[in-house]
Design brief:
4-stranded antiparallel β-sheet; about 20% strand; binds zinc ion; alpha+beta
């Protein structure tokens, strides 16, 4: 599932392809993704110029010259593939195809169809049901130790579960919640309300750091954020704890056998990986 760093690299890859360009042709090849596509979707997009592409949490926002915004979420399996070979055969999961006036195509491919596309009036964008309850951007200025401490105060739930609540911090997914808790040395089982003061400072800094480093790694491993096959973004990672249960802990010298090393548990139906020795 694409996490925030992938979405950010997709946004950075889309900018040079779409910003300032006119959508000469838009082909809608299915009725619905996670939700039905809006009425007249392709027709409303056709001929519009893309002014700017931004990200909010894991939503991609393309502002159009007609005053509408194309809102897009990659869901579980959504991919943006760019090609200038318009005769390249379409895949059966290419659900929306954008062709710019300069002849490039962006194909939205989504095998599992948990993705979202919607068209929203710019003036009502932040009231959209998918956006209105989102907390601060983890890489934005409003997110810091005191803000995180305030959002966690009074919460009697494990910190790992609280971090996945999009009202606490927007766009943080399961993998980076695990990585940030590990980097901050905080147990995923710790009660959220106890993360105050210096602990909250440490955790907010760790969240920024793990996300920032992943985005940087994505940028430096790709040319213009495009993979060789035309897919935007990247999906190669080096995680410290995620998906590493049973492996030695990279930071302390604990290792299996003998009770050490990275462990896996399940919290709120999501897998959590952590080092019980390093994280308290
Ligand atoms: Zn360890």
């Amino acid at each position: 599932m694409p996490e925030l760093p992938e979405v950010e690299t997709v946004v950075r890859g889309l900018r040079p392809k779409l910003e300032g360009r006119v959508l000469a042709e838009v082909e809608q090849r299915c009725e619905s993704l996670r939700f039905p596509l809006p009425e007249g979707f392709a027709r409303r997009l056709r001929g519009r110029r893309v002014l700017r592409i931004d990200r909010r949490a894991k939503y991609i926002l393309a502002r159009l010259d007609g005053g509408e915004v194309l809102l897009c979420h990659l869901g579980m399996s959504g991919r943006m593939v760019v090609t200038d070979a318009r005769d390249r055969p379409l895949d059966k999961h290419d659900h929306v195809v954008f062709t710019t006036a300069t002849g490039e195509q962006i194909r939205f491919n989504d095998a599992r169809r948990f993705g979202v596309m919607d068209l929203v009036d710019e003036g009502r964008l932040w009231q959209h049901r998918l956006l209105r309850d989102l907390g601060p951007e983890p890489l934005g200025n409003a997110f810091n130790g005191p803000a995180l401490a305030a959002a966690l105060s009074g919460r009697r739930t494990p910190i790992k579960t609280a971090l996945l609540d999009q009202r606490v911090v927007a766009g943080l997914g399961n993998i980076y919640a695990c990585e940030a808790l590990y980097a901050a040395g905080l147990s995923p089982r710790r009660q959220a309300y106890t993360v105050q003061g210096r602990r909250a400072e440490r955790l907010a800094a760790a969240i920024r750091d793990v996300l920032g480093r992943a985005i940087e790694a994505g940028g430096s491993s790709l040319r213009d954020y495009v993979q060789a096959d035309g897919e935007l973004g990247y999906f190669q990672h080096h995680w410290a704890v995620y998906d590493r249960a049973g492996e030695p802990c990279p930071d302390c010298d604990c290792a299996p056998p003998g009770g050490g090393g990275i462990r896996r548990t399940v919290q709120s139906n999501r897998s959590t990986c952590y080092c019980p020795r390093r994280q308290r």
